[in-house]
């Protein structure tokens, strides 16, 4: 390549003597702005709880005639999470039944308070709790999801049934 093959860029109106592809630069800036908008949306969704680590989308609640269930709507695989069950009605005992599909998708690490009786039944696991004094009575289940995907399961509180689902992220 000889020095005669080089072409000198023309002088622009602003006095600079550089060669540029303005149409390419505009397309690049547009793509860059779109990427920033996508990144911002991902951050906002994570703050809202869509990644299962807190926020208002992280947990949901279901009201039944016999009590309330606070459950994770979005959870992380092999990461501890919790269910809070509140029995509203008064009585000497409360029965919590976790369906078979619940037991297939979650590993129970701890139940607080400890049930005075628990047994496997055809429809899942039944736990019976003493209910001393007036209500409400709280039960907390510490669980760990066993595999990613959408977990659909059933929980019964003193005979009232809730069909719930949790998205388990990898």
Describe this structure in words.
This protein is 19% helix and 44% strand. By secondary structure, the chain is α+β, with helices and mostly antiparallel strands. It is rod-shaped, with a radius of gyration of 29 Å. The model has no long low-confidence stretch (mean pLDDT 87).
User: Percent of residues in beta strands?
Assistant: 35-45%
How many β-strands, per DSSP? 11
H and E string? HEEEEEHEEEEEE
Share of helical residues? 10-25%
Computed CA radius of gyration, to the nearest angstrom: 29 Å
The end-to-end span amounts to 56 Å
The biggest beta sheet is recorded as: 6 strands, mixed
Calculate the mean pLDDT score and round it.
Answer: 87
Q: Structural class, please?
A: alpha+beta
Keywords: Membrane, Transmembrane, Transmembrane helix
Transmembrane segments: 34-57
Protein name: Photosynthetic complex assembly protein
Organism: Aquibium pacificus
């Amino acid at each position: 390549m000889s020095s005669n093959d080089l072409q000198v860029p023309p002088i622009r109106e602003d006095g600079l003597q550089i060669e540029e592809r303005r149409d390419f630069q505009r397309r690049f800036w547009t793509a860059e702005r779109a990427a920033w908008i996508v990144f911002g949306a991902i951050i906002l969704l994570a703050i809202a709880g869509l990644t299962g680590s807190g926020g208002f989308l992280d947990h949901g609640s279901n009201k039944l005639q016999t009590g309330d269930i606070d459950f994770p709507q979005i959870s992380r695989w092999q990461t501890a999470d919790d269910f809070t069950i509140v029995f509203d009605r008064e009585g000497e005992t409360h029965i919590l039944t976790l369906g078979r599909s619940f037991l297939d998708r979650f590993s129970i690490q701890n139940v607080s308070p400890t049930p005075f009786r628990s047994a496997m039944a055809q429809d899942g696991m039944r736990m019976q709790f003493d209910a001393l004094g007036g209500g409400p009575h709280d039960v907390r289940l510490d669980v760990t999801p066993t595999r990613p995907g959408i977990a659909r399961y059933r929980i019964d509180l003193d005979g009232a049934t809730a069909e719930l689902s949790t998205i388990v992220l990898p």
